[in-house]
């Protein structure tokens, strides 16, 4: 965080303000993918242990969100999309967010280790470190590759869920990681196309800011095409199957079509319809990821009742 102080009216923080620090929308994706990773694993935890593990994985994700908001308070105050977050809005003081995030980090890692195994706890600790230190403190403000490399932080949850159940890492866990890792750049670059003014104002070197939107559109189609074989590969592992393959094929066709539409548009066309296509592709990309992991759940259910 820079030395610039965030000038905001001070008010007493409420429970909802601390919940916002956890980034509940991001947490929902973390919880879902971690849960899928745990359920599709060949070993199964007792229900109480599984619930406990997911709870502490969620708290670890929330800790990352709180520490990210503490560090990025100066950026958040400038960007319209984030200006109402608890710290720039003056609802939570930076020191409170820092203490909250650190306490949750330590508690979540320790408790996950006690509930499951040390490897799962170590992966959770590394994920928190990667998101806060490697991505937030270093990559985000220094390189247009921020979201490419930093995307690893969001890709670890299904692997953590798998390791919590099995105590080891496998090809299936790595492919679930790779699916999210390759999905992250086109997902966020679609957002950056219509939120570029925010990143520019905050001096965040997003690809749209450093290389322009034309280059970003080419990167979106390139990474989307690279995503296709990665996502389909899961269908040929023991946790995949025909339901997953059909679902993945349809979703990939939709994502590639959207990326092609984005590629064919110039800035004049995008501004004329207020980035309608880019916004639709961004929304579709969210469904793309949830439905891929949902299809893995369906495959696990079919195997359980076979």
UniProtKB/TrEMBL annotation:
It comes from Stagnihabitans tardus. Coiled coil: none annotated. Carbon 2 of the heme B porphyrin ring is defined according to the Fischer nomenclature. It is an enzyme of class 2 (transferase). Keywords: Cell membrane, Heme biosynthesis, Membrane, Transferase, Transmembrane, Transmembrane helix. The gene is ctaB. It is a multi-pass membrane protein. This is Protoheme IX farnesyltransferase. Converts heme B (protoheme IX) to heme O by substitution of the vinyl group on carbon 2 of heme B porphyrin ring with a hydroxyethyl farnesyl side group. Pathway: Porphyrin-containing compound metabolism; heme O biosynthesis; heme O from protoheme: step 1/1. Interacts with CtaA. One of its GO terms (molecular function) is protoheme IX farnesyltransferase activity. It catalyses: heme b + (2E,6E)-farnesyl diphosphate + H2O = Fe(II)-heme o + diphosphate. Its main location: membrane. Gene3D superfamilies: UbiA prenyltransferase.
């Amino acid at each position: 965080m820079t030395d610039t102080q965030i000038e905001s009216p001070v008010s007493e923080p409420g429970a909802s303000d601390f919940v916002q620090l956890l980034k509940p929308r991001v947490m929902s994706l973390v919880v879902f993918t971690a849960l899928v990773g745990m359920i599709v694993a060949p070993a199964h935890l007792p229900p109480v242990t599984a619930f406990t593990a997911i709870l502490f994985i969620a708290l670890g994700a929330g800790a990352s969100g709180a520490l990210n908001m503490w560090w990025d308070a100066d950026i958040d105050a400038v960007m319209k999309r984030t200006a109402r977050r608890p710290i720039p809005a003056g609802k939570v003081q930076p020191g409170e967010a820092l203490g909250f995030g650190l306490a949750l980090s330590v508690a979540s890692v320790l408790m996950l280790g006690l509930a499951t195994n040390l490897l799962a706890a170590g992966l959770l600790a590394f994920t928190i470190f990667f998101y806060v230190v490697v991505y937030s403190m270093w990559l985000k403000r220094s390189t247009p590759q921020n979201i490419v490399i930093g995307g690893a932080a969001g890709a670890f949850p299904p692997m953590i869920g798998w390791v919590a159940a099995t105590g080891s890492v496998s090809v299936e866990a790595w492919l679930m990681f790779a699916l999210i890792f390759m999905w992250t750049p086109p997902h966020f670059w679609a957002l950056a196309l219509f939120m570029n003014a925010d990143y520019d104002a905050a001096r965040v070197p997003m690809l749209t800011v450093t290389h322009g939107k034309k280059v970003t559109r080419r990167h979106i189609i390139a990474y989307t095409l690279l995503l296709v074989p990665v996502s389909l590969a899961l269908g040929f592992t023991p946790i995949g199957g025909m339901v997953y393959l059909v679902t993945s094929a349809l979703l990939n066709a939709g994502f590639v079509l959207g990326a092609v539409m984005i590629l064919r548009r110039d800035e004049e066309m995008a501004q004329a319809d207020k980035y309608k296509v880019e916004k639709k592709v961004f929304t579709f990309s969210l469904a793309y990821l949830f439905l891929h992991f949902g299809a893995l759940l369906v495959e696990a259910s079919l195997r359980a009742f076979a």
